[in-house]
Predict the 3D structure of the following.
Amino acid sequence: MTSAARARRVTIADVAREAQTSTASVSYALNGRPGISEATRERVLEVAARLGWSPASAARALAGAGADTIGLVLTKDPRDLSVEPFYMQFIAGVESALAVRSRGLLLEVAADADAEVEAIRRWRGSRRVDGVLLTDLRPHDQRIAVVREAGVPAVAVGDPSAAAGLTTVWTDDAAAMRQAVQHLAALGHRRITRVAAPRRYAYTAIRDDAFDQTARACGLDHDIVRSDLSEDAGAVATRAVLSSPRPPTGLIFDNDIMAVAALTTAHQRGLSVPGDVSIIAWDDSLLCRLVTPGLTALSHDVVALGAQAARRLLDVIDGAEPAVYQEATPMLQVRASTGPAPTEA
Amino acid sequence: MTSAARARRVTIADVAREAQTSTASVSYALNGRPGISEATRERVLEVAARLGWSPASAARALAGAGADTIGLVLTKDPRDLSVEPFYMQFIAGVESALAVRSRGLLLEVAADADAEVEAIRRWRGSRRVDGVLLTDLRPHDQRIAVVREAGVPAVAVGDPSAAAGLTTVWTDDAAAMRQAVQHLAALGHRRITRVAAPRRYAYTAIRDDAFDQTARACGLDHDIVRSDLSEDAGAVATRAVLSSPRPPTGLIFDNDIMAVAALTTAHQRGLSVPGDVSIIAWDDSLLCRLVTPGLTALSHDVVALGAQAARRLLDVIDGAEPAVYQEATPMLQVRASTGPAPTEA
DNA sequence: TTGTAAGCGTTATCAG
DNA sequence: CTGATAACGCTTACAA
């Protein structure tokens, strides 16, 4: 008949009483800290387990220990979020790294950059998180100033040039873009177009530059079309590009969704892929493998990226100095959507 | 030169001093509670804003108020998680509902059912969450006993028959399955197979039964093949089924991933879809639209489901009585992967 | 309407 | 090594 005890929670005071010692010793024992005899420690641990004690993280956080939680705020419309495989992969990676150190992940979807900053401020003020992960870096990102000023441990995911000295996890997008352009050049394409993400992302300029330079070096006609990352925008951009007087024979997209949309658009217009136009996607996901023809894509391990970012953040929380970690450069995964350039009419 | 003040955080005591009142009044003012004059309230609010005060949720939670956070624990291998569009859609929906009430989402990926229960216990003990969302209900789900016993507000997402009286958000999977079977029957199919999720999910038995009954009612040869929800397992199951002496001409899958895998498998074996075999997927996602031929699928709004679940959980946290909420029944979205049964050889 | 003070469950300091 | 005891920031009776 233990039902009477059900309502109250077990505290370290209970454990201390039962183990005939003080709360301080219990705290030491439970946190594996020195300054306590092995005998007491074992007794405390045994009693805690028997009583079913579990730490009240609120109290712990309040007393100055960590919250054992990191924060991730995504700036996306929820419905877009759900369609981008990237984020779920990233989150999955983060979780896998957090799980082994039993940390939690606090997730928030913000409507815009201001809401994002607001969330970070709120979190740090409320001691809910020990640190934050910053994705989708923007040029002159205000979040970086905020975390720095507020002293919030943070890791930026994106190009170091946009991270202003914060610990950074990045992939070499410029090198990846070079591969893509050179692949098309090697296949004999003379006119290529890049369908790019908005300028508000820091990586956009980097990919823009790499695209321009490599295309020029290869002596290709080249052009950049600005789009957003949605399916619709990808289709619209593709239609416009393919309707031009001398349409390009190679297209490079900034994500997989737009590339798939382009594939559909090309088919609708009776164009063959890769017979009439070759398509390259960025972010190789299930989608790229499953469509017909399979999409040649710049493939990288987003799950690993998320895991690495989370691990580095835990380091930073533990006091590590800022550092820059480069992940594997996205590799061009060649599939059926790229082929020899069509011979001129 | 405000740099000296940077380290300390602003507390209600600071606000009280500055506003020349007590911490109690500040608390009342900040929480919009009665028992304070309008004049002081405004003064407090103004001072709080000026000082940049933000609530310490740790302290708040410790003092007995809520944590303003709900928990969601997913039992999946992280890499599988990232491939299932369902979860990201669900999370996106949850976030959208939470955002309007400025609540956070604590996410955890558990390796197995025990880890899941452990997470819930830990959360409730640590006062990190005000309530939890339960997805992927299992028959006799231990989590239900746990939340009940621990008095954790919870909402189950799944069939009410598995939710044991908890507030539940569900879709009528039996009705959805009937549509799928009748669709195939109407197209003249005489032999159909269901490639099903593992029995550990509560919905599996419900879909099994509906499949059997409807197929029998329609006078069809029918069979159920057990699989897991992965791409590989879907391909394996499809190969096995199509190799049988008298293969079925219609296949119904329990998710979209397996259905897409089946499509690829059929093509590899030189079979036409829907010429030789018709395919129906569950959970209509981008994938189903984008593959060729497009997949006929049971389509439902998972984002809305997540939003509804989150809203109902907030109700429960606010003391609402248990209730059952039925969401729209998945609708059969007919695409090119289903067609008339092939004429017997 | 206001202010005082007692928790909430830990951690951390500092004498024994 | 051990045990009181004071924070931590907020909520909430209870007094004034």
Observations:
- Residues 9, 11-13, 23-24, 26-28, 31, 55-56, 58-65 of chain B lie near DNA strand D (CB under 10 Å from a C1').
- Residues 1-7 of chain B have pLDDT under 50 and may be disordered.
- Residues 173-299 of chain B form a domain with the Rossmann fold fold (CATH 3.40.50.2300).
- Chain B touches chain A through 56 residues (CB under 8 Å).
